[in-house]
Amino acid sequence: MNTAEAAEILVAGTGPAGMIAALALADAGFDVVLAGPAPTHEDRRTTALMLPALTLMERLGLAEGLKAEAAPLKTMRIIDATSRLVRSPVITFRSSEIGEDAFGYNIPNTHLVRQLEKAVMERPGISWRKELVRQWHMAADTVEAEMEGEDRISARLAVAADGRLSPARTAAGIRAFTRDRRQSALVLNFSHARDHAGISTEFHTETGPFTQVPLPGKRSSLVWVARPGTARELLALDDGDLSRRIEEKMQSMLGRVEVEPGRQIYPLSSALPMRFARDRVALVGEAAHVFPPIGAQGLNLGIRDIEDLVAVARLDRNDPGSAHVLWRYDAKRRPDIMARSTAVNMLNMSLLSDFLPAQLLRTAGLSVIGNLAPVRSFFMREGMRPGSGWKNLFSDLRKEVRR
Ligand SMILES: Cc1cc2nc3c(=O)[nH]c(=O)nc-3n(C[C@H](O)[C@H](O)[C@H](O)COP(=O)(O)OP(=O)(O)OC[C@H]3O[C@@H](n4cnc5c(N)ncnc54)[C@H](O)[C@@H]3O)c2cc1C
Fold first, then answer.
1. Same domain, yes or no: 142 and 93
2. Among residues 247, 267, 287, which one ends one of the domains?
């Protein structure tokens, strides 16, 4: 067998999380080997990246290129479209309420991935091995990846960005609680007669969210979460019928709808590992958390994984995979990942459940958010970056009481 090539950090996985991790770690001065096949550019989803995530993209020199094909998200609205006994009022979050022009930008994944791929290829300090890791070998002071082409790469730290099934996570002995949600997301883009004015609308339905997100021009992306059988039926409809179903579901708020070619279905699941790092392996992106697409949280949370990982790796430049670095990473990520996963899964379950107390709780929670400006501001800030809401909450509440 060949002798192992030595790297400081090995990033496994060439989805968005893996490529962003490689770029951010190289930017922090580490020598990085990125392992994984070239992306296929077939992902028709779009990703709403919030301002804090875009700040990292800016630092990596990517923000302008990404915004070129993206649309700003100025307003986010939640409409309870269930036919349940208790329903919550319409909730509108305006970025102007927290002094921002937009919460973030909605970027087609094909564009996001192309920009990341180009940056990875141009960035000094990243060596890209375009093949899968076949097997992992863990030792006390290194981790070794056996590649499909039989080369071996050893590193002080392995970053597992290898997706929801994460072979690196399994090799490190980290168990994950996983759950098939028995829901699927139909994703597509469509054009519409009326201007969206930068407004994204999430309709809450009995089978999950139905979310329209602005794209440049009079176009939007759609994530329609439904039972798997319904999603398959929708996928098979002709363009005219599907366009009518979407317009109907949106109560014609954007006028006449025309779906664009290219529909895909994503089966939904949840996964939560018991730890976020162990044995020289740190989990980022979907290797560290999977939940249904509500409130555009997934990759934004993945980017916070990467920011925290870079911060703790800098603490020990000679050994970024040491036990104390990984312990700090686990401790830093735990509250954020647990809070987001729990909130999204509970909101999703409360939509599906016929249990009246669950309905009441969801409605009461959403009503408080909708009616109290300081609470709304708190959630808007927390939605973008954890901890940032608390800074203004008490002064906002005092102002509200005086009013
Ligand atoms: C319908 C839908 C809409 C969404 N919308 C949003 C949104 O608006 N905003 C948001 O923030 N998030 C959103 N998300 C979540 C977001 O898409 C995910 O968080 C993100 O795509 C995960 O990226 P990743 O790189 O972690 O995983 P993946 O994209 O799954 O990448 C994993 C990579 O690992 C590679 N790999 C696997 N095994 C190996 C191996 N042995 N060796 C090397 N490589 C390997 C794979 O080839 C793949 O390239 C959405 C999700 C869904 C389902």
1. no
2. 267
Range of the structural domain that residue 81 is part of:
71-107+179-267
Same domain, 207 and 89: yes
CATH number at residue 257: 3.30.9.10
If asked whether residues 205 and 327 sit together in one domain, one would say no
Boundary-marking domain end, from 211, 244, 267: 267
3-state SS of the chain: helix, strand, coil percent to 5? 40, 30, 30
pLDDT at position 226 over 90 = yes
Same domain as 137, residue 54: yes
Domain annotation covers residue 143 = yes
Using one digit for the tens of pLDDT, what is the confidence trace for 100-135?
A: 999 999 999 999 999 999 999 999 999 999 999 999
> How far does residue 337's CA lie from ligand 1's centre (Å)?
16
Residue with tokens 């599907």: 242
> Token digits for 99?
């002094």
DSSP state for residue 95 in the 8-state scheme: G
Q: Do 167 and 189 fall within a single domain?
A: no
Buried b / exposed e along 62-74 (16+ C-beta atoms within 10 A): bbebbbebbbbbb
Does the structure show a pLDDT above 70 at 315?
Answer: yes
**pTM of the predicted model, to two decimals?**
0.93
Q: How many helices (H) and strands (E) does the chain have?
A: 12, 19
298 within ligand 1 shell (Cβ under 6 A): yes
List phi, psi (to 5°) of 108: -60, 135
| CA 260 to centroid of ligand 1, rounded, Å | 23
Cβ–ligand 1 distance for 292 under 6 Å, the answer no
Q: Is 270 in the pocket of ligand 1 (CB under 6 A)?
A: no
* Phi, psi values for residue 329, rounded to 5°: -60, -50
CATH number of the domain residue 329 falls in: 3.50.50.60
Instruction: Quote the ligand 1 centre to 241 CA distance (angstroms).
Output: 30
With the most atoms of ligand 1 within 8 angstroms of its CB, the residue from 166, 290, 299 to mutate is 299
DSSP state of 290: B
**Whether the CB of 45 sits within 6 Å of ligand 1:** yes
CA–CA separation, 152 and 135 (whole Å):
10
Average pLDDT, the chain: 91
Number of residues written out for the chain: 403
